[in-house]
Task: inverse folding
């Protein structure tokens, strides 16, 4: 038998004048090394062809069974597509005419040499989610998972776990196979292998979880009161007296929670072993050690600190002045003064707690803390002028005093800082310094924001002006000052400045003198 390109041929002639009867086997893909005398069979049966004497009928036999016939064409060629299934055995195929019999050829099953592999396993019936376990070293509660993989087309694939036969399936025309095993896998680690006639896969490691042997754990707690948060073991505080605990256990196991000897409640773990439980018993304020138990397992202690809203301290963080030009934040015991008699106070308390502010025995107003424990209040009662200690109260808590100094515009002292002479030689004059020839100088100073400032020289009104938002004022007087020294006073509401002494020497009152003569 000789190989030519993608053909294998075998033939013999009984008559030297006749063209030799030859069988050629064509196939779809180039196979691995094929021994002489074999026809390689791939995914499809081969098309057999060959040579013979023109016009002769060629009949193919498998042993004594006819598998097809055809006629040799004028070129001495024949071809026959085999539609019959060819079993893998030692029975030879021969081509026969009236006067010739070809050499026999056997069948070589190429697919038997294709490696077999387990590509995945997935859960079939435990929770109905068909969860893909995908790769080796998977863990599942399903004792009969679905396995899948690759093999030669049409090959019978058998799965085993050690000596345990798990079931068999035939690979499809593309070599793909999958099936749900028919024998339960035992609990623990299993090494599953797939087998064909001459191939064996690498082990696929899968661990079957036994619910009662799975450790029970508490992973975290969820606070869903006020500011919602997740708490890990020993972290932070919660104002939720009935937090929700979350963890893992064996699938279907009853999980019971305790805080010491106090039963908090029970719940059944779902098919994946997850559980969550909102405590049915309120936890008192303080630190608690919570444990979870199943029929055969106990968790590590989970430490959680509860601080009920009524036990959360109340405090005043700062106040805000939103009156006048100088709007500002004011902190406890700062030297900053405010002209806002009804500032807004900010602070914290237990979530939902009613916070009331006091200045001494005077109630300044009330507000309820929000879900995060934050509160703010623009007081409804005015603070008196001066320094006061404001405190915040809840039903069970009292804040430290918050010291704040109120100074309204009417309480701000009025001052004269300087005068400006803009007649002759311009100059600034401080209190009691120099002389001016300006009978209507401009005075400037400070007062409460928006206050009306009036200047007097004795009983004479020199003019009025209103201080700006920053408390600054400036006034060119409308009444002339006579020559001489004057004590000018500024008044604003109940406030009066210190006297501002200024000496006026009008141009007409300045003595005339002859200083020198010049001889030119």
Result:
């Amino acid at each position: 038998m000789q190989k030519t390109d993608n053909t294998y041929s075998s033939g013999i002639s009984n008559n030297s004048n006749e063209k030799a009867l030859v069988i050629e086997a064509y196939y779809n893909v180039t196979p691995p090394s094929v021994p002489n005398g074999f026809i390689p069979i791939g995914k499809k049966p081969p098309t057999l062809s060959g040579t013979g004497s023109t016009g002769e009928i060629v009949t193919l036999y498998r042993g004594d069974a006819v598998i097809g016939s055809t006629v040799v064409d004028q070129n001495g060629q024949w071809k026959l597509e085999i539609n019959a299934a060819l079993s893998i055995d030692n029975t030879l195929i021969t081509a026969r005419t009236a006067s010739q019999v070809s050499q026999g050829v056997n069948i070589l099953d190429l697919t038997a040499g294709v490696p077999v592999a387990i590509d995945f396993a997935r859960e079939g019936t435990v929770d109905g989610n068909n969860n893909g376990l995908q790769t080796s070293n998977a863990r599942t509660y399903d004792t009969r998972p679905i396995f899948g993989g690759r093999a030669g087309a049409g090959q019978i694939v058998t799965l085993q776990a050690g000596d345990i036969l798990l079931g068999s399936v035939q690979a499809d025309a593309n070599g793909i196979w999958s099936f749900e095993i028919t024998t339960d896998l035992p609990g623990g680690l299993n090494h599953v292998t797939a087998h064909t006639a001459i191939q064996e896969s690498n082990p696929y490691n899968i661990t079957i979880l036994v619910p009662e042997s799975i450790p029970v754990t508490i992973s975290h707690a969820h606070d869903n009161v006020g500011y919602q948060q997740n708490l890990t073991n020993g972290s932070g505080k919660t104002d939720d007296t009935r937090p929700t605990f979350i963890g893992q256990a064996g699938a279907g196991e009853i999980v019971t929670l305790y805080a010491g000897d106090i039963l908090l409640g029970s719940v059944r773990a779902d098919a994946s072993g997850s559980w969550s439980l909102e405590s049915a018993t309120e936890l008192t304020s303080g630190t608690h050690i919570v444990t979870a138990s199943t029929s055969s397992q106990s968790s590590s202690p989970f430490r959680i600190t509860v601080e009920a809203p009524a036990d959360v301290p109340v405090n005043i963080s700062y106040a805000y002045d939103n009156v006048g030009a100088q709007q500002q934040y004011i902190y406890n015991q700062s030297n900053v003064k405010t002209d806002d008699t009804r500032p807004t106070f900010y602070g914290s308390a237990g979530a939902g707690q009613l916070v009331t502010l006091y200045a001494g025995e005077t109630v300044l107003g009330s507000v309820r803390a929000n879900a995060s424990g934050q509160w703010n209040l623009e007081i409804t009662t005015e603070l008196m002028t001066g320094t006061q200690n404001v405190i915040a109260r809840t039903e069970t808590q009292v804040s430290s005093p918050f010291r704040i100094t109120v100074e309204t515009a009417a309480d701000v002292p009025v001052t004269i800082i300087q005068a400006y002479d803009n007649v002759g030689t311009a100059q600034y004059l401080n209190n009691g310094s120099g002389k001016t020839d300006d009978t209507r100088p401009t005075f400037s100073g400070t007062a409460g924001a928006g206050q009306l400032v009036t200047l007097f020289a004795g009983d004479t009104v020199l003019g009025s002006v209103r201080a700006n938002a920053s408390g600054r004022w400036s006034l060119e007087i409308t009444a002339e000052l006579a020559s001489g020294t004057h004590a000018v006073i500024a008044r604003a509401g109940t406030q009066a400045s210190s006297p501002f002494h200024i000496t006026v020497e009008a141009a007409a009152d300045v003595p005339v003198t002859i200083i020198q003569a010049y001889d030119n």
Confidence is low (pLDDT under 50) at residues 1-9, 26-37, 126-130. DSSP finds no helices and 46 strands in the chain. The two ends are 152 Å apart (CA to CA). The chain has five domains: 2-112, 117-209, 217-307, 315-407, 411-507.
